[in-house]
Amino acid sequence: MIIALAGRRIDPPDAPASRFPPEMSDLVRERIKSVLSGRKAAALVCSAACGADLLALEAAEELKIASRIVIPFTRDIFRETSVADRPGDWSRPYDRITVDAEQAGDLILLGYSKGDPAAYAAANQAILDEATTVAHSSGLPLAAVIVWDGKSRGQDDLTEQFQKDALKRQLPVIEVSTLK
What we know:
Layout: E1 2-7, H1 25-38, E2 43-46, H2 52-62, E3 66-71, H3 75-82, H4 91-103, E4 107-109, H5 119-138, E5 142-148, H6 158-168, E6 173-177
Parallel strand pairs: 1-2, 1-5, 2-3, 3-4, 5-6
Helix pairs in contact: 1-2, 5-6
């Protein structure tokens, strides 16, 4: 199976609501790993933000599952806007994983500008498109994995939009909770 994945980032210290508390990282990594191994994933396509993405990439690496990473900006801009801006040491695994992906030809940079409001939504679409391409070329089925708290943040909730887009494509959707 090919897995397209998106989900929550680690909560900032001043989060008004708990969506992905930092202390849940190890448990969420194990939940993701269980989904990947249970579905016999052959490839993972996702972004590389702190939280769901990097935990999934680490789990895939541990399970020897191929990964393809899609980010909307350069590696440095993405690290600044989506990795290093939250609690925890996410930059080190981000740098290692994205350098390895780039060397393997599995890092897709979409070329958006740092302030472009469409950048992250475009990255989600590109993740689904890339996963579809990988699934078709491999002859394997495709599923979407959503790593979140199960509640919409409202109109700008990109994780919820990823889920809706996956369902529009008639993909099975597997949810992984970021809460206890």
